[in-house]
Each structure stands twice: as C-alpha cells, then as structure tokens.
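Deviation from plan, reported transparently: heme C complex.
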Amino acid sequence: MTESSGHIASGAGCRKKRKIWLLNLLFLLAGAGILFLLWLAPPASTPAMPKDEHHAPYQTGSKRAAEKHCQECHGPEMSNPLPKQHPPPYRCLFCHRRA
Ligand code: HEC
Ligand code: HEC
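Because the crystal trials were delayed, the predicted structure below was used instead.
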C-alpha cells in the first residue's frame, strides 16, 4: 500500500525504473542470443580424434606433447595427409576432441 502511493507521488522516478528494467531485460536477451548462437556453431562438425590404436597414445596427457606426433601420419606426403580444404592445422586438439 505504501509502495504504490510512493509511485504515484514520484511518477518520473517510476518511469525511469521501468526503463532500467527494460534495459536489463534486453541485456539478458542479447546474452541468451549469443549463447544460443555459440551453441549452434561448429563443434559438432569437427570430427573427434578416433578412438583406435593409432590414437591411443594421444588420448591422455599433455595436448601440446601429443600434437608433436600428429604430423608423423597426417603431415604432407605421410600415410594420412590432411585434405586440401583443411583449416590451418596448428593446434590439432583445440579443434579435434579426444574420443
Ligand atoms: C600412427 C599414425 C597416426 C598418428 C600419429 C595420428 N593419426 Fe590420426 N589418423 C590415423 C589414421 C590411419 C586415420 C584414419 C583411420 C582411423 O580412423 O584411424 C586417422 C584419422 C584421424 C582423424 C579423422 C577422424 C574422422 O572421423 O575423420 C582425426 C581427426 C585424427 N586422425 C587426428 C589426429 C590427431 C589430432 C593426432 C595427433 C594427436 C593424430 N591423428 C595422430 C593415423 C594417425
Ligand atoms: C581450426 C580447427 C582445426 C585444427 C587446428 C585442426 N583441424 Fe583437422 N579438421 C578440422 C575440421 C573442421 C575438419 C573437417 C574438414 C572437412 O570435413 O572438410 C578436419 C578434418 C580433419 C581430418 C579428417 C580428414 C578427412 O579426410 O576426413 C583429419 C585427419 C584432421 N583434421 C587432422 C588434424 C591434425 C593432425 C591437426 C593438427 C596438425 C588438425 N587436424 C588441426 C578442424 C581443425
């Protein structure tokens, strides 16, 4: 009761409060929108490192150390070279999850 009569007494302050509330809502919606876009984006399209005997030694331990060995098979002229359209292959395990 005292709350609502206070609002009538200061109409301008009340309008200002409503504006801040609206800005907060817009901020939350923008944040949710960005999270939604991130959630939609690439990860699912990048194949994980296969879980087989070739990759078993690299499934655990330091990623940086493991990445030193990828080129032994996936480097140019090796047994399993990367396809031509492959993105710049600097940090393999940033993009390829371990299975
Ligand atoms: C001993 C050789 C060898 C090494 C070392 C190796 N790979 Fe592979 N990799 C293969 C072979 C063979 C295939 C294809 C057959 C298969 O699935 O194992 C392959 C396939 C892949 C694929 C494709 C998966 C798919 O679904 O298309 C990814 C990603 C991959 N390797 C990542 C890596 C990464 C990252 C490293 C370094 C940590 C690595 N490999 C080291 C032999 C190797
Ligand atoms: C910037 C992210 C990124 C990095 C870093 C990266 N890859 Fe990939 N890789 C991809 C994507 C995306 C694909 C799927 C490409 C496609 O299907 O055309 C892929 C595909 C592959 C494949 C499967 C190719 C095939 O014939 O299906 C192999 C093997 C592979 N990457 C190995 C590696 C290795 C080894 C490294 C490190 C030397 C590496 N990648 C670094 C994003 C990355």
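The helical segments are 2-9, 11-40, 63-74, 92-95. We consider this an acceptable substitute for the interim report.
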